[in-house]
Amino acid sequence: MSYTVYYIITSVLVCGIILGIALMNRVKTARIGNLISSLTALFAILLVLYKNQLIGDTGIMIALASGAAAGIIFTLKVKMVEMPQAVALLNGFGGFSSMLIAIIIITDKVKLTNIFSLLMAFIALAVGSITFSGSMVAAGKLQKLLPQKSVRFKGQIFATNFILVLTICLIVSICILAYTFGDRADEAVTAFAWACLSLTLILGVIFSIRIGGADMPITISLLNSLSGVAGGIAGIAIGDPLLCAAGGIVGASGIILTQTMCKSMNRSLLNILLGGGISATGCADCSEPINKEENPSEKSEKTPLKSAQDIIIGPGYGMALAHAQM
Fold first, then answer.
1. Distance separating alpha carbons of residues 35 and 176, to the nearest angstrom
2. How far is CA 168 from CA 40, 123, 140, in A?
3. pTM
């Protein structure tokens, strides 16, 4: 397949992804939009396999079948109340995939002569590993495998900033070494890569444990954006326009959703990422619950409805939990 044909088909598939996202803005067309996006992703996978002449490869076919079967079983067993942590897991898998692509590029000695590709690979490695570890912590918190409260320790912000600066310095140093010594810097680049991977995995954990369970949906939305960013950067590293465009779409839509959620909660993204909660002032002892549990009778439940002049039903997550959406 020529590059011209590949670029044309890629453009059509990207338009399909955008169309699917646009249709998901309305309840009536959300299902068909989701279906279009899913089919577009399937065609994208087949296109990449055909372009690289991997359609008949037994190992690839087994991997595709296994992944599809696992995905179907996973989605059938996940309940609606478990959907946020399911999304967090999928975000983590996306970051993990970008991380694997980056590792393959970094360990390829030929790529050491291409400094730009090497730089993009290390950035994809960093963003992908942060997304992976952060998403795993988020899923664990929502599934109550980890404490849902905000976990803080002394010097946490300093540790976060220190790891971030150290990671940037490592990436810059790697590029300088590769540019100066070329193939002779192979072992040093590999060692720096493992160091960068370890630091960013720790950074993702520190990033997520600071955020409480109530703010996890926004964190998951941000991690969704980061998974797209990691995929887009990985696409730049390997020179694949399809992966680059798809990652860019996911990254942009994820950050827009994150900002919208923050605005609806009247909270800033920075406040949420720093683990800042909404605290009540003037509360001497907040250990006791404000609202005590009561046992309402059938009569007390019907009285407000009978006396109400106007009733507004706001569909949302609670309606979804009750399976009330059509």
1. 46
2. 35, 9, 28
3. 0.77
